[in-house]
Amino acid sequence: MFLIIIEKFLTMGSEKKLWLVVIILLVEIKVQHCVGNPIVPCLFIFGDSLSDCGNNNKLPTLARANFLPYGIDFPGGPTGRFTNGKTAIDFITEDLGFSHLMPPYANTSGFDVVEGVNYASGAGGIRKETGTHAGPDMNLELQINNHKVIISQIAAKLGGPDKAQQHLNKCLYYINIGSNDYINNYFLRNTYSTSRTYTPEQYAEALVQQYSQQIRVLHQTGARKFSINGLGLVGCIPQAITLRGKIGSSTCVEEDNKAVLIFDDKLRILVDQLNKDLTDSKFVFVDQAMIKSENYPMLKGMKGMTNRCCKVNEKTGQCNPLEVPCNNRDLHIFWDSFHPTEAVHKLMAKSAFYSSITKITFPMDISSLVKM
Ligand SMILES: *[C@@H]1O[C@H](CO)[C@@H](O)[C@H](O)[C@H]1NC(C)=O
Q1: Is 219 among the residues known to form the active site?
Q2: Tell me: the pLDDT tens digits for 127-151?
Q3: Residues 261, 320: one domain?
Q4: Do 24 and 61 reside in the same domain of the chain?
Q5: Local confidence band at 31 (pLDDT 50, 70, 90 cut-offs)
Q6: Name one GO cellular component term (predicted).
Q7: What's the CATH number where 123 sits?
Q8: What is the best residue among 79, 109, 112, 117 to mutate for testing ligand 1's pocket, by most ligand atoms within 8 Å of CB?
Q9: Looking at 147, 167, 332, 339, which residue is catalytic?
Q10: For 176-191, how does the pLDDT look when each residue is reduced to its tens digit (9 = 90+)?
Q11: Inter-axis angle of helices 140-158 and 200-220, nearest 10
Q12: Which domain holds residue 323?
């Protein structure tokens, strides 16, 4: 076959030959573009349902999303992502120049784990007990243990622990966790005891302490570039209103927001401290609580918290399987009772990656972090 092509080529007129060469070059450029030339060689993702891409699919938990209408706007349909399309870290993965999104730890088949893995698990938190009333999940400690398993695979592939370390030093580590330690722990007063054990101040302190230790463990495994995400205003999610009712003139449960903002303040201070302590590393804090309509005119035009796009099971707050969701999904902030739509995920990603318009990242945005 190949010989026939060469023979044809040799007998072609020179003008035809020139065109053929041009076409081959164009195809080559296109292929190279598709293969991707990411700014960082690898990306590891830790977190909860805001980042999960299918790690809970086989777990006996209510916190699963591998059925329609979840994934209705995702190429190929439902994957386990807790939204209609892509998540914020998916958009960041694309902005980094990767040609594919990171596979879930639960199924990396067909992917090269050297390039990255997603460990995020719906309902998971910093604390072990968080979210477990819904069934088992992967808390942050388990996610880091899973990362150690992947590291040994990477070492085997790259030819030893030293080679693996050199590689792991260059990766981006994206961590977005903690919401469930409030929504599916501290705020569930009948199910968990933490609200009786800790004041909001003490709870935030205990969480950030535990988080700090886990980040340091990750650093010991070779992580050097971190994006640490603060928590969004969880008092403004539809579930908060459903559970706690509308209080006064506020559209959000301000008491819940207040508790979470204490955590965010402490986390930002931790990131500052880590930048001072671990001088071989760089940590970025992403202030997700800044993503509100006062700062983003786009959100003002969207349907807010009482308008979930899909019909939800009031007990779980998740979309009922196979029910038809709203049509104008880009005009809704919330997809189900907990999770934003793809449109809002995209907004979160863009403002964390290029933070020039609204300053939500400290001390730099993710696009600058990965160039260091
Ligand atoms: C694992 O992922 C691959 C590729 O993404 C997919 O084709 C396969 O069905 C998945 N396997 C399981 C058991 O989910």
Answers
A1: no
A2: 999 999 999 999 999 999 999 999 9
A3: yes
A4: no
A5: very low
A6: extracellular region
A7: 3.40.50.1110
A8: 109
A9: 339
A10: 999 999 999 999 999 9
A11: 10
A12: 42-369
